[in-house]
Design a protein that fits this description.
single chain; alpha+beta; Nuclear Transport Factor 2, Chain: A
């Protein structure tokens, strides 16, 4: 698998706020964790519900891949995100730990840092 291409297409779906497109990147029994879901959510239905609420509550966000590192059965990827807020854009840097279940994401842990 070309992890750079996978990461680029996956982040494009995040930018587009494409819930069903994103679900297609994840295995049915996936586990997803980010700062808001630190205990994790499991499965397509829970992920779909979370993403639908998240995207409804957030302004436009543009994700730009920076780099990926292959690991056993997955990759780590660093990215930047520009958030379009009412007072102008802000930026954050993020990092994903991705482990595959077949050719889809089985485990995804997300870490983010606001940038000045």
């Amino acid at each position: 698998m070309d992890i750079e291409d996978f990461n680029r297409r996956w982040l494009a779906a995040w930018t587009a706020k494409d819930v069903e497109g994103l679900i297609g990147f994840y295995a049915p029994n996936c586990t997803y964790k980010d700062p808001q879901t630190a205990a994790g959510i499991v499965g397509h239905d829970a992920l779909r519900g979370y993403l639908t609420g998240l995207f409804a509550a957030t302004p436009p966000m543009t994700y730009e891949p920076e780099t990926v590192w292959a690991i056993d059965n997955g990759f780590c990827g660093r990215w930047y995100c520009t958030i379009e807020g009412p007072d102008g854009p802000s930026r954050m840097r993020g990092f994903d730990l991705v482990e595959f279940d077949g050719d889809r994401i089985g485990w995804n842990e997300v870490y983010v840092h606001p940038l000045p």
